[in-house]
Design a protein that fits this description.
Layout lengths: L1 E3 L2 E3 L1 H19 L7 H21 L12 H15 L4 H24 L7 E10 L7 E3 L2 E4 L2 E2 L17 E5 H9 L13 E4 L11 E4 L2 E8 L28 E7 L1 E3 L4 E4 L2
Parallel strand pairs: 7-8
Antiparallel strand pairs: 1-2, 3-4, 3-8, 3-13, 5-6, 5-12, 7-11, 9-10, 9-13, 10-11
Length: 271
């Protein structure tokens, strides 16, 4: 287990975080309004500096003219060092901190530049957890710690359960729209922990922060749908909730402050 601040990463968590790093960075930047040049430059400098720091820890150098994203190369280097045992636990934790927590600096720069717009508010409709898999079932109240909803279990840890996937959020209006189109879906069916209403869902994107009851979190990445959710869609068309189709995706979030969430609690988008 690797400790990064209050967050715990298994070896699998660390491996997949390194491999997903470039995608996480791109999701923070894609689809935003035009930003001040300095903000875009900061994000690019952070990405290059992080890639170089990871490569240097492995005794390697990434070609500045590499034809692919340098963060992708750095992620592969880190994953290789992790798999081979070339890094100590402290080196793994240091690289994770540089890579994953560093994304918070990018989000802060975007927030300071006004990229996420004005605050907005909504309401918690339902809280959900399961002993593994979907659907997740309703809860009267959810206690949230650094790992997410207490008692919630992810059956497949290869794609779920990392610290930046501690909470899964989704929009009740999106679910209602799918249901009105004839899809046999309901709140919790697709595995979200917190079902929300009242916030324009396109604004809940990687980088924004939300207060849910007394807990606070930061959205980290879109939740890519998989075949486990095929049963909630006519013709097993589970990719209807992919973020490539617009503001219809579930989203993962990192817990910034543990707390308690109950139905009808306020949800505040506080970018």
């Amino acid at each position: 287990m690797y400790q990064v601040g209050p967050y715990e990463f298994t070896k699998l968590d660390a491996r997949t975080t390194f491999l997903d790093l470039a995608d996480l960075w791109r999701e923070h930047l894609t689809g935003l309004p035009e930003l001040p040049a300095a903000v875009g430059a900061f994000a690019d400098v952070w990405a290059d500096a992080t890639a170089d720091r990871i490569a240097m820890a492995a005794g390697e150098v990434i070609d500045p003219a590499a034809p692919v994203d340098r963060l992708d190369i750095a992620g592969q280097i880190a994953e290789r060092c992790l798999a081979s045992g070339a890094w100590t636990d402290a080196q793994v934790a240091d690289a994770l901190g540089a890579a994953w927590l560093g994304l918070r600096d990018v989000a802060d720069a975007l927030r300071d530049a006004g990229a996420f717009g004005d605050p907005s508010s909504g309401t918690v409709v339902q809280l959900n957890r399961s002993g593994g898999g979907v659907p997740k079932l309703p809860l009267p109240v959810a206690d949230v710690d650094w790992g997410g909803v207490v008692g919630d279990v992810q059956a497949n840890r290869r794609h779920h359960g990392r610290p930046w996937q501690a909470l899964c959020l989704w929009d009740a209006d999106v679910i209602d729209r799918f249901a009105s189109e004839g899809h046999p879906i309901g709140y919790g069916s697709a595995g979200e922990n917190v079902t929300i209403r009242g916030i324009e869902w396109g604004r809940v994107r990687p980088g924004v922060r939300l207060r849910l009851g007394t807990a606070r979190c930061e959205a980290s990445s879109y939740a890519v749908p998989c075949s486990q959710n095929a049963g909630w869609f006519v013709g097993r068309a589970f990719n209807l909730m992919h973020h490539d189709r617009g503001p219809v995706s579930r989203i993962y979030a990192t817990v910034l402050e543990p707390g308690r969430i109950a139905p009808d609690d306020d949800v505040v988008l506080e970018p």
